[in-house]
Amino acid sequence: MRKNPFEKERGQATVEFALLLPLVVCLGFALLEIALVITDHFRALEVSRIAVRAASTAPDPQASASELVQRILGDEADVDTTTVDGLVTVSVAWHRRINLVLLSGVLPKIAIRASSSMLQEPPISLDLK
What we know:
single chain; alpha+beta; 2 helices
């Protein structure tokens, strides 16, 4: 009786799957983390846009932008507001820890930064005489 020539290769697919599964799972987590970092960058950009709009109409741009950013992002965010020749610029920065499995303690924090600029507008007065 002749044996099947492919009988020696039984279980090969299972072994290959077992060897590649951790790599595929880690790659999936890395892609998820990249997506979260990109989302945080767009969040910082939107917060800087909102803060520069508030700062451009406020009598005290620094206090207005800082209060708004702290309210939205929390205390870990750094806010820098500059006004030069009527142009208000708000820069937002904070550090985010990478949460990859088994590597979160080894990898450094990522600095997420965004800034927006807008011309300063005169303060709105509601004097209805």
